[in-house]
Amino acid sequence: MEEKKVKEYLEGLATKGGDGLPLRFFERLIMHGLRVDLIEIGRVILSFKVPPRLLNGGNYLHGGVIATLVDLVSSAAVYTVGAAFTGTSVEINVSFMDAAYADEEIEIEARALRVGKAVAVLSVELRKKNTGEIIAQGRHTKYLHLPSKM
């Protein structure tokens, strides 16, 4: 497992693009402020305080943000099993169970359920850090590109 590679993926600094905005701006907007709490083979745990910039019109964490966190954090779990790349999303499913509000501490746990030669199956759970209440659960299937022999 390359812990450094996982940490760089999750905490990497953005660089400036030609339009003056950081490259991968959308990902950085959502990932900014995440703290890596645990990295082990097949599992990562992160936490963060919900910032007001990620709230929807109802003043709770936007569902699109949650779906993006499922995508990005589960992808990091692929690195924990020694994969050279995170692959391409085939399917993402999210079940929303509770709301998270501004300044609330949440924990995100991603697990690699199976990482084979061509497919990875991952799960993610977002919880309120102080109560353990589940905010959302996600499942993510990724296609792992096989290296070309040409």
Short description:
It contains three helices and six strands, in the order ααββαββββ. It is an alpha+beta fold and 150 residues long. Helix 1 (3-11) packs antiparallel against helix 3 (63-79).
Shape: globular
- Quick one: biggest sheet? 6 strands, antiparallel
Oligomerization state:
single chain
Instruction: Indicate the proportion of strand residues.
Output: 35-45%
How large, in whole angstroms, is the Cα Rg? 15 Å
**Total number of strands:** 6
Compute the average pLDDT. Answer: 88
Major sheet strand order: 1-2-4-5-6-3
Gap between N and C termini: 28 Å
Question: In which range does the helix fraction lie?
Answer: 10-25%
User: What structural category arises from helix and sheet content?
Assistant: alpha+beta
Number of helices: 3
Secondary-structure element string: HHEEHEEEE
Low-pLDDT segments, ≥5 res: none
Key features?
single chain, 150 residues, alpha+beta, six-stranded antiparallel sheet, globular
Give a verbal description of the structure:
The chain has 150 residues and is of the alpha+beta class. 22% of the residues lie in helices and 35% in strands. The chain has three helices and six strands. The protein has a six-stranded antiparallel beta sheet, covered by helices on one side. The longest helix has 17 residues, at 63-79. It is globular.
How are the elements arranged and paired?
Blueprint: H1 3-11, H2 25-31, E1 35-40, E2 43-49, H3 63-79, E3 88-96, E4 105-115, E5 119-128, E6 134-143
Antiparallel strand pairs: 1-2, 2-4, 3-6, 4-5, 5-6
